[in-house]
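Subject: Protein record for review, amino acid sequence with backbone structure tokens
How to read it: Take the token row as a discrete description of the fold.
Enclosed: The protein record, placed directly beneath this head.
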Amino acid sequence: MGFRSVGQHQLLLRVVCRLRKRRFQILRQLLDAAAGPVTLLDIGGTATYWELVTDGRVGENLRITLLNTDSSPATYTNFAAVAGDGRAMPRFADKQFDIVFSNSTIEHVGDFNDQMRMADEVRRVGRRYYVQTPNRYFPIEPHFIFPFFQFLPVWLRVCLVLRLRLGWYGSRPTREQVLADVTGIRMLTRRELRQLFPDAAIVDERWCGLVKSFVAYTDRPAA
């Protein structure tokens, strides 16, 4: 059964879905500000995400391009799936998309310079944008679901995942897999997010009174 019980796992999923639906209220503002049909680039996203936040009603007036390191067949006729790197998207023209959307992805692209590259590309190819990312200082690390995990030494984080199967691992992973995952996540502070998106409004997402994550967005054409 792993470190968490089935009941705890289901509770976490409900919390995640509730937060995602709150985020969609902000996204709805951006969709309303853009004249339809709306073209949207989702960096690191899936069709399943859009099914969750829209309760299965993915509007036909929304044209979504999913960009991931590996592309998979599109689920709906108004979806396109392409392989690429959010840090460099030469295939897309300046302001090609009405909205660029990214949910819990920018913390996975590398160091701060890599995150800056992604932020610059988001602002280049999108007229408006919406980027969500976890708060580095939230006491529970969201990927491994462990208190203050992000501040522990790398060797200790690897040992904890291997012994306790923390986070979303369904089976015991290898040490190499865990090391890659542990070192491949760099969560952001509010100040750093402001550096990446200087023209954005930043919204705090709270859980139990604490800032769990941030949303950086602009509902007007980005500079």
About this structure: The chain has two domains: 6-141+186-218, 144-184.
